[in-house]
Amino acid sequence: IEFNDVDFAGLYNLSQEQIDRINAVSRTVVDNELYFDAGSDIPDLITCISSKDYVDNFKSFAPEHFDCLMDIFTILKKYNQHFGYRVLNEIGTYMCSVNKNTSYENKYNRAFDNQILQKVLPKLYGSYDKIWAPLVEILGALLKQPIQLNSENKDALIENLSTLTDNKLTSLNFDVTTADECFNYPKSAIKISEMLLDLSSSGFATFIK
Fold first, then answer.
1. Residue 204 forms beta bridges with which residues?
2. Residue 126 forms beta bridges with which residues?
3. Taking 70 as the threshold, does the pLDDT of residue 59 lie above it?
């Protein structure tokens, strides 16, 4: 989990112009409604061991999200960069906790977005030749209309994304609003775009900057 955002507006007495200036370059998706229902008690802390049962439960109440996870796994397996049992069990446990403890309307999308960001993408690092293709393919799987996306370079990728999104995505430096419009999982899409930009400019990228 990255901790590289600061909330000056929440702590200091900034002017609206200053807040707008900061927000104009922010690429952070903020959604405080996900975690617990307003006015409810925080659930009792329990210790659990992630297991197959949580995965089976996750699959039962959020089959579309589970299927997307299998798509991502398949992409990564093709490049021998796939995750294993522990990651799948822990994603299942997280999704079950969200399912149990919040009734937020968009909770499955937001929760699954968090898990791609926290459990899958950190594994990917390395050179252009190693991770460009899997990142591009995962980005395609995150679109509102998922597609098998293949682009050998940044210009070709931007052209494809622009066509697929009716010119909403015209660069890899898209803002939060555009990410939310075009992707089911905007946090992960933004992170992937940042890694692709790093690959394009320096030939190397890591999850943590």
1. 127
2. 205
3. yes
What tokens appear for 92 in the block? Answer: 């299942």
Look up residue 183 and give its two tokens.
Answer: 């992707």
Give me the pLDDT at residue 78, please: 96
CA dihedral for 11, 16, 18, 19, sign (positive or negative): positive
Tokens representing 112?
Answer: 């699954």
Query: Cα–Cα distance between 173 and 132 in angstroms, integer?
Result: 16
Q: Does 29 have pLDDT greater than 80?
A: no
CB atoms within 10 A of CB 178: 18
d(CA 54, CA 171): 38
- Entry pTM: 0.86
Rounded-to-integer distance, Cα 3 and Cα 1, Å: 7
In the numeric block, the tokens 């405080």 are attached to 32
